Amino acid sequence: MLELKDFKVFADLKPEDVDKLGQLVRRIDYGADELIFMEGAPAFGFYLVFAGAVKVVKRSAKGKSQILKIVGPGGLLGETTLFDKGVHNAYAKTLAPSTVGFIERGDFFYFLEHHPKVIFRFFERLSLEIKAFQNKLAERSYASSKERLARLILALGRSGIELSRSELAEMAGVSSKTAIRTLGELESRGIISLDNRKINVLKEDYLRRLMEPSAVSVDEAVII
């Protein structure tokens, strides 16, 4: 399990300052498939993922779901509402047993007044996520389903996170039927092997050749 000092947004803090920040963090243990916050709920702070994996999901008015990102250890949740004091525009649910820390907005703002470098780290991270989302949006226009799935398969393989076929489809923006067919094709060609939900990458170079070369990665804690 990560410690507070391992989060990149706090990399500039001295050990004593990390200890002060730690006093503001309320840690919560969740089981798999548990809701952390709901879409449309008021946001009172933000969350730190110390262990496990969490999916952030947007639902349409017609009930369709889109996984916006997956956050692992070292990642943040709910940070987009930290400065606008709005409501959560998506919901967050655990993919595996997870330990998540919550910091209340007012407490964190008081801490930032005395440690302004953290603000730049926050904005740096938000900027990277915006670029990654912009690239993903553009990818929807010109990339095939196989290209989109190739990028996700590589990212999931590095993280060790396992998704169901429907979750993989939601994240890639393809139908479940297309995801299942593409995975089957890649397996038959010896590019990957499937073990229930786990996808083992056998020929990484092949998948990399399919990927859009300008893809932006936020860091190892986040898959977009």
Describe the protein's architecture and organization.
By secondary structure, the chain is α+β, with helices and mostly antiparallel strands. It has 2 domains: 4-115, Jelly Rolls (Sandwich), CATH 2.60.120.10; 143-214, Arc Repressor Mutant, subunit A (Orthogonal Bundle). Helices cover 39% and strands 23% of the residues. It has 7 helices and 11 strands. The chain has helices at 15-22, 105-114, 117-142, 145-159, 165-172, 176-188, 204-210, and strands at residues 26-30, 35-37, 45-51, 54-59, 65-71, 76-77, 91-94, 98-104, 192-195, 198-201, 222-223. Strands 2-7-4-5-11 form a 5-stranded antiparallel sheet. It has a 4-stranded antiparallel sheet with strand order 1-8-3-6. A two-stranded antiparallel sheet has the order 9-10. Helix 4 packs across helix 5 (165-172). The radius of gyration is 18 Å and the shape is elongated. The two termini are 22 Å apart. The model has no long low-confidence stretch (mean pLDDT 92).
Characteristics of this structure?
2 domains, 7 helices, five-stranded antiparallel sheet, Arc Repressor Mutant, subunit A, single chain, Jelly Rolls, elongated, alpha+beta
